[in-house]
Amino acid sequence: MFKKIHRLEKKLLCGQHLEMSMADNRTRELWSSFMPLKRTIKNSINTDLYSMQVYDKGADFKSMKPTSVFTKWAAIEVSDHTNIPDMLQPYVLNAGLYAVFIHKGLPADFHKTFNYIFQEWLPDAAYEIDAREHFELLPETYRPDDPMAEEEIWIPVKEQSNPDKAF
Asked: What does the CA dihedral 80, 51, 21, 57 come to, rounded to 10 degrees?
């Protein structure tokens, strides 16, 4: 599941967003709205899609509840923020260090990968969660109903401020 630690450069994104929680998951609604508009974006850099979660600063992932609200984005990388089509918004994904994982399977099985990341990998890693965006990078060929589908999960990390302290 773990793939690599990667220093991401700043990315300019263009997309749509909705507030939601895991209990009130509106992901399908978000992507159903975004995908027809994706064709109107003339300055996309590639065809990879960003499914991004923006949490409140200082979010405590150990005590998050299914009702905890966050902002979810459906987006694509663009060369600049000029001429953004109506109904789409710009977003700057800032540079930083990320732990990258591979999830293979259906979205319904994502909790297994999530549990691995936060309950197995992170407690033993020399990193801790950083207060930045989390995202999944989806290839254009990604199909959520394909049990063999693969996506990259990007978790923002920073070196532990106290390496002797367990997460």
From this structure: -50
